[in-house]
UniProtKB/TrEMBL annotation:
Pathway noted in the entry: Steroid biosynthesis; cholesterol biosynthesis
Residues of the full protein shown: 39 to 387 of 436
Entry EC number(s): 4.1.1.33
Keywords, comma-separated and alphabetical: ATP-binding, Cholesterol biosynthesis, Cholesterol metabolism, Lipid biosynthesis, Lipid metabolism, Lyase, Nucleotide-binding, Steroid biosynthesis, Steroid metabolism, Sterol biosynthesis, Sterol metabolism
Family to which the UniProt record says this protein belongs: Belongs to the diphosphomevalonate decarboxylase family.
GO annotation, biological process: cholesterol biosynthetic process; isopentenyl diphosphate biosynthetic process, mevalonate pathway
Species of provenance: Neogobius melanostomus (round goby)
Molecular function in Gene Ontology: ATP binding; diphosphomevalonate decarboxylase activity
Name the UniProt record assigns to this protein: Diphosphomevalonate decarboxylase
Keyword Transmembrane helix annotated: no
Signal sequence, start to end: none
Length: 349
């Protein structure tokens, strides 16, 4: 009925890419130039919580991020709102419901909170848009494939719609309908895998991913080579490594792909620097540690910021934490760590 009001709260986890997405072939629909693959983190520590309310007394759609009201007219927010309402209308028409059964005539108020630094290259937009799309879908009674809508909020967000190991298939179509996230393996597949987030800096990154990608696509020949000549094979090898729980291959591909992504940033003109000297020291410590044991026990990856995400197996986890504490007594997270996180399967709840 007309006075229906509704409120839903959901949480969504961060995902960390081990094969990176960098570069769009369509800016508006957010279609990538290469496929990517990520691991969804456990929600205990890094997550977004979003509440969406509809009420007939609301006069406008409004949004608050971490307690501060933001501009709802942001084009990507508008894409997500428009697409969810489109699906809700379609469902209403298909099921012959009365006009406002899904609260479709009502405005929404959205309130979203990250429990980790926003825009510090810790995939805040991924968890944020995944959570927004999922919560809106619940409010409006929409079900089914939602990753193509989350993708239109932030590319990497489509991968946070699933738990465990997730690929974002780039797709071929111009309308983006085949550019979707897909679970490769659930979290339960590899329970020994551990993730350690090393917060080097919680500052906002100097160059956002949107403008960074645009400049890279325009100026970097290495990016073109990466997207066409490197990532297609690497995706296949990475999926195989995950399926086989082959840590050595998984770890080496992860480090090489992070390094190539940051090399692409350097190859961009003017160049983009996301790593700082602490990041470089972490890279050196990981390689020294692996060389010491004569096997690859630990891997690093970095997104659009200086913070490291470390992958290792349960049996090496505490020793490596001690190594980091020894070499970086104060540089990382004020001397405190975000704890080792198991991979998450329960994802959206
Ligand atoms: O989805 P965006 O626009 O925040 O871009 C994410 C880019 C990287 O984090 C660097 C790589 C990735 O695949 O997540």
């Amino acid at each position: 009925s007309d006075d229906k009001s509704n409120m839903v709260t959901c949480t969504a986890p961060v995902n960390i890419a081990v094969i990176k997405y960098w570069g769009k072939r369509n800016e508006e629909l957010i279609l990538p130039i290469n496929s990517s693959l990520s691991v969804t983190l456990h929600q205990d520590q890094l997550k977004t919580t979003t509440t969406v309310a509809t009420n007939r007394s609301f006069e406008e759609d409004r949004i608050w991020l971490n307690g501060k009201e933001e501009d709802i007219s942001h084009p990507r927010l508008q894409s997500c709102l428009r697409e969810i309402r489109r699906l809700a209308r379609k469902r209403r028409n298909d099921t012959h419901q009365s006009f406002d059964v899904a609260g479709l005539s009502q405005k929404v108020h959205i309130c979203s909170i990250n429990n980790f630094p926003t825009a510090a290259g810790l995939a805040s937009s991924a968890a944020g848009f995944a959570c927004l799309v999922y919560t809106l879908a619940r409010v409006f009674g929409v079900e089914g494939e939602l990753s193509a809508i989350a993708r239109q909020g932030s590319g990497s967000a489509c991968r946070s719609m699933y738990g465990g190991f997730v690929q974002w298939i780039q797709g071929e179509r111009d309308d983006g309908k085949d550019s979707l996230a897909q679970q490769v393996e659930p979290e339960s597949h590899w329970p020994e895998l551990r993730i350690l987030v090393l917060v080097v800096s919680a500052d906002r990154k100097p160059i956002g991913s949107t403008s960074g990608m645009q400049t890279s696509v325009k100026t970097s020949a290495l990016l073109k080579h990466r997207a066409e000549g490197v990532v297609p094979k690497r995706m296949g090898d990475m999926i195989e490594a995950v399926c086989q729980k082959d840590f050595t291959t998984f770890a080496e591909l992860t480090m090489k792909d992070s390094n190539q992504f940051h090399a692409t940033c350097l190859d961009t003109y003017p160049p983009i620097f996301y790593l700082n000297s602490v990041s470089q020291q972490i890279i050196n410590v990981v390689h020294r540690y692996n060389r010491h044991y004569g096997e690859t026990r630990v891997a690093y990856t970095f997104d659009a910021g200086p913070n490291a995400v470390i992958f290792t197996l349960e049996q090496h986890f505490s020793e490596f934490v001690q190594v980091v504490q020894h070499f970086f007594p104060s540089e990382i997270n004020g001397g405190k760590f975000i704890k080792g996180l198991p991979v998450d399967d329960a994802n959206l709840s």
